[in-house]
Recover the amino acids of this structure.
């Protein structure tokens, strides 16, 4: 792979979205079952279970971070956060990149990235297309 010139468009790695969809689907199935039980029983138990599962679903959505990593010719720009996003720029030469992948993550090309630059440490979770990061860092 040839060296990237400063005029090349940046490579952007984003969070792997199907994991969020799978987590929400696993939460919605019991919620639908609780709604069906509310019609059958006159007790408060199905309503309490429905409220608890709704709270877990809301917590999952609020915890979902919008991590993104932009790879430029000489720097990395990290965007991370849930509601209020933060942005950090790190120089390529002074940044240590650690990638953690499970067996399933290697199959799906998904992994967690830890960027360390001096005293600054940024962790981005479940980024897709990790092979682009390895190719960029090897240049």
């Amino acid at each position: 792979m040839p060296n990237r010139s400063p005029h090349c468009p940046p490579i952007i790695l984003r969070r792997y979205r199907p994991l969020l969809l799978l987590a929400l689907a696993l939460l919605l199935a019991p919620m639908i079952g609780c709604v069906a039980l509310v019609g059958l029983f006159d007790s408060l138990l199905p309503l309490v279970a429905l409220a608890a599962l709704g709270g877990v679903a809301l917590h999952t959505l609020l915890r979902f971070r919008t991590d993104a990593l932009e790879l430029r010719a000489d720097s990395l720009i990290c965007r991370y956060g849930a509601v209020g996003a933060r942005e950090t720029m790190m120089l390529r030469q002074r940044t240590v990149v650690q990638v953690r992948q499970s067996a399933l993550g290697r199959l799906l090309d998904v992994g967690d990235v830890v960027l360390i630059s001096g005293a600054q440490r940024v962790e981005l979770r479940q980024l897709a297309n990790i092979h682009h990061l390895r190719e960029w860092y090897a240049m």
Q: What stands out?
A: The longest strand covers residues 120-128. Residues 18-40 form the longest helix (23 residues). The mean pLDDT is 77. The chain has four helices and seven strands.
